[in-house]
Batch of 3 targets.
Target 1
Amino acid sequence: MSEEGTTLHDDRLIVALDVHTMADVQQLVTTLGDTVSYYKVGMELFYSVGPDVVRYLKQQGKHVFLDLKLHDIPNTVAGGLTSLMTLGADIVNVHASGGYTMMKTAAERLHAAAAEQGVPCPKIIAITVLTSMNDDDWAKLGETEPIADRVTRLAKLTKSAGLDGVVASPREAASIRAACGEDFLIVTPGVRPAGASIDDQSRIATPAQALKNGATHLVVGRPIRAAENPREAAISIIKEMASSN
């Protein structure tokens, strides 16, 4: 966390841009100003306005987590990531359930393409189990392994395939950190400030709890975006994050 004059920000906070238009993006980014330096662009926004949103954010000097959750055969995922790399996103992702070969192929091809083009390679992380998934949904899939055990196992597989980290709920962050070491990204959705609505998330934690559990980045959407004063909401979360230090 850093404080310069009246600007308080923390690069570990990623604000989810779950909106539909470039006008909405520009309004929120302008409102948050220097308080927020990292944004998540997901399917809803990317499919609506296309790659221009990533280019806009980079032009504003922001970091971008391009959250498109690629999941297909190895060559298709690798090709998709190398195409997306030209946009300049800082983090891209795939589904760990696509398997070891898919992840390894994607990582190797993306690093090779970045080296060939002389550009920084984005960090590649993998989705473990969606944070909206609860025990009832999990059982209906025919799964008997506890969610937490599956998440940790997928994280270890992700690391062995050469990826940089995972997306997982804050509740599993501690076991992932213990299994995968310190140099491993753990990006956690399902983060809600104390007293906030849980919305469609199931496995959640407060910002301070998530960081104490081992998360490296926190993804927060509605508690900031839908707040009466989004900038003040972001500052409040940043202050709450600081209490974990």
Target 2
Amino acid sequence: MTASSECDMGKDKIRHLIFMGRRWRYKPSKDMKPHGFRFTTLSAGVVIAGKNYPSAQDKTRAIGWNNEWDQIRCGETTSRPRWPTGSVGEAYDRALRLRAATRVTKGQRQTKDQESRDDWLRAWKWLEPVFGDVDPATIETEHFLRLEPVSGLAKGLIPKIETAVSTTERHRVIKVWRALWVLMEAMGYTHGKKDPSLAIANSTAPPRQAVWTEGEVVRLCKRAWRMGYKGLAACMATAWDSQLSPIDLRSLTTGQRTDDLQGAIFALARAKTNRAAAGSLGKRATHLLDGYIASLPFELMPNAPIFRTRGSATTTKGGKPQQPAPYTKNKLGFDFRVVRTAEFGLVETRQLADMRRSGTVEATAGGASAQAISTKMANTLATSTRLQQTYNPVNVVTVRDVDSHRREGRAKLRKNKPGRKV
């Protein structure tokens, strides 16, 4: 490059084009973002006399985006496409619309809790910065994993996710990417190219093995009740007997409840899969649940969540104390950690969700079949929008049979209790 070229490049200052983190990046203003302009990472550019300059391609792209914004500001056009034609981002948006249409045809509706746990939305936070405006046909395996020759370190999307979060998160993201690639292939975005991520094994992380014992859960419930966390105490007792996940527990209402001779039964659809489930409780958990409901300073409506926080002594504008609010995901986890630490100390890391696994350990030790346990945990039943008609006597009997096997297994586990806590 000549001296004159160097001089010209130094004088060429392009709006919103910045050098940050050893890369040139396009940083739109807050007014530009509602119109589809996004923070975009470009190339490393070129180095001349120790100074960093954007490449010709980076400059062209930035100038093009600025021209589009100028047209919008001047009223010549109202908006710009969210993604370039033929890009991964465009295919992703089409895939989301297709998934939504599929749910509508099945009569399903995605709740806020389901949306917050949607693997596609979660994975896109990692995929968008790397592949959002990229042509799928230009993506190579090295974008996911490569060895940097100078440092000898692994680079790419996979090491980035594993370092920032976990191997479980990496497995989820790559799983969604491969499902997205299948759709992109069907919609003609890949031009016959095979998924480049298939050259890398997407192994799963080791599953959790932590379990609770009945005695430990009883101690937690008593501790929570004495500390004023009555809603949490009832929630833990319900979790232990019903083997429902925390997200399902938080949505339980009195309108879903019926009773038989052995205790309460909740008829619901699991939040994650929308499959029909029956959450059965024994007499002791039912008694604790009834005591908690009776202790509430107000009457629960049939469609109102049962389990609530301790409330607050502070007053509202009307001069009344703040009422206990329904448990949220974060609040339930926080209160559980408070009670767990008070009972078992800071070294304890087991979670409320581990009680679901603990029930399976008991039932298996008592001789329950895998099919019966699956029925109890609602992971093989067909989806139904009319839940009350789904729970026929056969299903309830199967669920109660698993409860019986759990009691038998619990007795066996007590007799063969190891020297250290499981």
Target 3
Amino acid sequence: MVELTLNDVETILFGCAILGTGGGGDLQRGLETVRSAVRDRIILMSVDELSDDDLVACPYFVGSVSPRDVNETQRRVGSPVLESFKLLERYMGKKFSAVFPTELGGGNTAAAFEVAARSNVPVLDADPVGRAVPEVQHTSFYLLEIPMTPFTICNYLGDKVIVDEVCCDEQAEEITRAIAVVSGGKVGVTSHPLKGSVVRKSIVKGTVSLAWQVGRARQEALQKGEDPVKAIARVLDAKILFEGVADSDAVWEDKAGFTYGDMFFTGVGNFAGRKFRIWFKNENLIAWLDGQVCLTCPDLIIVLRAEDGSPVLNPHLKKKEHVFVLGVAASELWRSQRAIEIFGPRHFGFDFDAVLLKKEEGR
């Protein structure tokens, strides 16, 4: 176990936002959330420290990365994700021993830290993906056929739902997304109440620590007057896919509880005169160089501002922003054939196979 200060948690969230590939929730709101929740030190716990019978759960938000604000007069709940956590505890009839993030992202990892701080439990140094993902079935548990039920949902209006059973995780995605759409675009969810014996064998370990390394590398480079993008790339064994300037603001729309869009760039430096495009569904999922697909999910496509290494979060790219695009290999679990079937380009309606980094090009 490691004791984290508020500053440590903030550094972790910056790293999570970078690994969130443009999604994973709003970083600034995530920072505000932990600043209000973390009054003392918080514990980061290794998955291997869990006992077999410890019960853990996963609190997070579901919805568009550009949700509508619920009118303050309509709000009856301060933290929908915390309320969903409490509801699932009551339903299970047992206190949770720890929480874990559903993904790495400035918003959704912050949600796990908020619930941990307010419930006085540790955060596990792990998540089911090692990046951010757009749909709730995109987890290591789904890959290994471990059900996410029962799960609970709460919105800012105070509506609460317990889902005891679903036919499949795709249906859970439809249910949570539909409730998010009628709830201002976002809902709090707590799912995957699992025993320690199950979690140890089914989660991607060490991912929060990796985010911490990334956040620290960026901070230290800025303090020393060094290149933060290169520092981040070194930690992640990343490949520089592109350097360029945005041709326009991101082109995007909210549809069915997701933020869909494209970003277009013209190259500078070693990429002068070349063109780059990224398609996102909440997260960056497909990249093209000069019209040819150069990288796809499950691998990570990360857009960083050249001047300070800060992540460009969707859909907030602005015209003429100078950026680097990094490619990072996903964890081995997420490069299996089954993982590519459920989280590759064909899942999102594209008529081509996944294009992934070679092992020597990324982690």
